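Box 3.1 A note on notation
Throughout this textbook, protein chains are presented in two layers. The first layer is the amino acid sequence; the second is a token string describing backbone geometry. Keep the layers aligned when reading.
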Amino acid sequence: MNQTASIQDLQREIALYENMKAYRALYDILSDSLHRFSYAFVESNEAAEEIVSDVFVKLWQIRNRLIEVENLKEYLYIVTKNFSLNYIAKNYRNPVVSLDDIDIEAVIEIRSPEDLCISADLIKKIKQTIQELSPKCRIIFQLVKEENLKYKEVAAILNISVFTVRNQVAIATKKIGEILPAYLRPEAVREKGFGA
């Protein structure tokens, strides 16, 4: 069963039966991603944890209306973004925040470097390259490539156009692609079909 189907099943269980096990399972599936997303805004682990906790409290409070929510994952990202921005407004003077002001630490999960023929140096360089992207580009890249959200979902969460999401992912992908030839052996590049 894919994650979307699982989330929909859990959503239904929570909405129709007030199932606490389903609520906990949903928390287990989404809390880490929502925490990273909130942290991108508030830059505090404690604040991000509190925000995610508040998001799930709100989810429980509206559980009877959850059946009306078309895309629960997208909805929870939007609520997390709003709670994060509210936190900033309450806790900082001059809380002018735009996506370009957000600094996130991109997390790359490569499960088997041996299978991918990627060296530790390349992994380090990819992480560095992602960190050098503009904050807006980094957060979009994280949501699309690491959280596996669709362009349309990311556009809705960040209140930007799908075209902007597509362009930012293309920019990130191009910059990462530019570092690959220097780290891959010429024969590996040919074997993988990357070169002539």
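Residues 100-191 form a domain with the Arc Repressor Mutant, subunit A fold (CATH 1.10.10.10). The chain has two domains: 3-96, 100-191.
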